[in-house]
């Protein structure tokens, strides 16, 4: 029987790349996104091979109704990113931090809870965090705190929800639309700077993270793991 995978936040970037990868693996793919237009565009890019629904991951009632309407699900990938809480710590506002917590920690928690009633016992939950959680990069205290909070749940849930497998992918600097808040020239300069201090010699692509997600979904002996996929940036972060 064909496995079904749900990708929360599958309309762009890492989520969309993961959807493409999972379709290629022969799984049935369902994606979600808050924006109906972006969802329609993503489904068109996927060639009609996937289905999807516009739903806000922070809306508990809507998420539970969404999963209840699907029936049995084998794997859930949660890529909800929320709003950035980057910048110098002295300038970090409480409102920005609360918004970041709501958009990532709360959204990923709500989505995971909503999936439990329909998630197959032999299935998996995969969270997407970020390398800021352990990179000690100045200006990322807010980002680090939010992502580390998600990562802290992984080993706990791997035990609590067993035999469901629970893992996370922690991406480094990945060239996705997440960076579109920066002007194109400044964005490229940032990517070039990161590439110079990354042992892999480049910034990442969404497909790199999709490959890691695919590994965690497919390896039935891996649980409680936060898989760092950052090209080795964390090893040389002090050079930034």
Average predicted confidence as pLDDT: 92
Can you tell me the CATH class?
Alpha Beta
Helix content: 40-55%
The CATH superfamily turns out to be NAD(P)-binding Rossmann-like Domain
- Beta-strand residue percentage: 15-25%
Q: What class, by secondary structure content? A: alpha/beta
Count of DSSP strands: 7
Low-confidence stretches: none
How many structural domains are formed by the residues? 1
**CATH architectural name:** 3-Layer(aba) Sandwich
Quaternary state reads single chain
At CATH level 3, the topology is Rossmann fold
Order of helix and strand elements from N to C terminus: EHEHEHEHEHEHHE
Profile the largest sheet: 7 strands, parallel
Radius of gyration: 17 Å
Quickly list its features.
240 residues; alpha/beta; seven-stranded parallel β-sheet; 7 helices
Break the fold down into its secondary structure elements and pairings:
Blueprint lengths: L3 E5 L4 H12 L3 E6 L2 H10 L5 E4 L5 H11 L2 E6 L15 H22 L3 E10 L12 H20 L4 E7 L12 H13 L9 H13 L7 E4 L11
Parallel strand pairs: 1-2, 1-4, 2-3, 4-5, 5-6, 6-7
Helix pairs in contact: 1-7, 3-4, 4-5
Describe this structure in words.
The chain is α/β, with parallel strands linked by helices. It has one domain (4-239): NAD(P)-binding Rossmann-like Domain (Rossmann fold). The protein is built from seven helices and seven strands. The chain has helices at 13-24, 36-45, 60-70, 94-115, 141-160, 184-196, 206-218, and strands at 4-8, 28-33, 51-54, 73-78, 119-128, 165-171, 226-229. It has a seven-stranded parallel beta sheet with strand order 3-2-1-4-5-6-7, sandwiched between helices. Helix 3 (60-70) runs parallel beside helix 4 (94-115) and helix 4 (94-115) runs parallel beside helix 5. The longest helix is centred in the middle third of the chain and has 22 residues, at 94-115.
